[in-house]
Amino acid sequence: RAKDAGRDAFRFFTTEMNAQSLARLDLENALRRAIDNDEFVLYYQPKVHIGSGRVSGAEALIRWQRPGHGMVSPALFIPILEETGLIVKVGTWVINEACGQIGRWGRAGVGPVHVSVNVSGIQFFVGGLEEEVLKAIELHAIAPELLELELTESSLMSNAEETIAVLRNLKALGISISIDDFGTGYSSLAYLKRFPIDKLKIDIAFVREVTSNPDDAAIVLAIINMAHSLKLRVIAEGVEKDAQLAYLRRHGCDEMQGYYFSRPLPGPEFEQMLRGGKMLAPPASDGCPEQL
Ligand code: C2E
Ligand code: MG
Ligand code: MG
Ligand code: MG
Fold first, then answer.
1. Of 39, 59, 61, 200, which is best to mutate to test ligand 1, by the most ligand atoms within 8 angstroms of its C-beta?
2. Residue 269 near residue 285 (C-beta atoms within 8 A)
3. Residues above pLDDT 70, as percent of the chain
4. DSSP character for 271?
5. Prediction pTM value
6. Distance, CA of 67 to CA of 169 (rounded, Å)
């Protein structure tokens, strides 16, 4: 009996595993096709300058229009792109697409719009990022000052000398660099003074309870003050409530981003919002209604 049960459990387990690895393989193949079939799209979430209340730029966020599945969230496919190395190709596409959009907004007369792009650690370390960025800037004839790369702490920490060299080359192009999800990775504060960076992005995890959790309030305050002492600008992500905005304003945070102002929008809707010249109430969807 016990033996049978064990065998059944084993059979069930392998069937389950096979189903899982098949689904995974399916997803990988679909992602490979997605690149060739142009199924990725960039959404743009406004950043707001706290002092003026004006839109100071946008963060480009990738979505996958998977046929038969609706919009797929990057949280579900970026890790797979990273594990398979496909992120390098997709990352190149993202940089190109964002530069193209900066160019189109400029020509449409709603610009200049400053756009930040998320860069994976793998993309950073595979090499050639500087050449890639330069090519995109030249191809779309945009001012390099309008492009910003968002890097995470963990992707900057593996080899300091090499990292500094790459960052210097990127900065020499005229673009700016920010540290995304600041405070959540393995970072050494010593690097902040050695790395040529422009901005810290306070992670949503600290912003969420900034008005109710004294520890989060202290951390946010410390990041703002430290950033300013180091002559860095500071932006908070994930702002959803009045009280969060008030706290950030009171303590001198430079910029904010979050559903309070707007969800990430398709390019044309972002453009409409800019033409309107004022902040909108949050629309219904962030373009990812469906999960995988
Ligand atoms: P991230 O760079 O930290 O981007 C911020 C995420 O928070 C976005 O999720 C955004 O939609 C979401 N968000 C913005 N405001 C709020 C808010 O008020 N409340 C809440 N709860 N969430 C908010 P999204 O678009 O799903 O992207 C998730 C992550 O996927 C990004 O985190 C980034 O790490 C990665 N990602 C997105 N696009 C790209 C890309 O083009 N390349 C790479 N390598 N990674 C990307
Ligand atoms: Mg980001
Ligand atoms: Mg972030
Ligand atoms: Mg984040």
1. 61
2. no
3. 89
4. H
5. 0.91
6. 39
